[in-house]
Amino acid sequence: MRSGLVSSLSRPGGKITGATNFYNELAAKQLDLLHRLLPTVTVFALLANPNGVAAETEINDAESAARSKGLQLRVIRASTEREIDNAFATFVQHHAGAILVASNPYYAVRANQLVALAARYALPTMFWRRELPEAGGLMSYGASPTEIYHQIGSYAARILKGEQAGDLPVIQVTKIEFVINLKTAKALHLDIPPTLLALADEVIE
Questions:
Q1: Phi, psi of 193 (to 5 degrees)
Q2: CATH 3.40.50.2300 at 19-146+172-204, yes or no
Q3: What pLDDT does residue 2 have?
Q4: What is this structure's pTM?
């Protein structure tokens, strides 16, 4: 709705429907999980793409969550490959102990770069999609892509059978996954607390 593509979630109208993944509403929980892993860290960082529809909302949520915990949050906005490179170098200069990467389609395309930079600078990093810890990132907390694809496929079948897209409610994904890559944790010399492991939907070894 924030992008103006639909008039409401229950009645999208027009010729469009789809799924909402809530990626940009999870910053507070992502920060909480990172802080549970690194309770002595007081300076965190957030990488956000200013071209994202909900970027400022996500930034505000993360900043509010950081303030409530008495933490510092360094925000850098980056929308190109070079800006992403520079952002990680700046995070190190600011003595950030860990990073949140905000949800954004362009960042999904730059997944290998983000994972490589996190490894190069030895920065524990929280992502929003499970594909990034699968590619070597440390952790992710976000909507299940499997559920999204399944629901969208179901809608495609219904539309092909004659239903109007605008009459189908926007799907609200309910399954949120927490994924931890233990191999990456070991490379960063991090011991994942048992309480955090117990919360994980998947542990990659």
A1: -60, 145
A2: yes
A3: 45
A4: 0.79
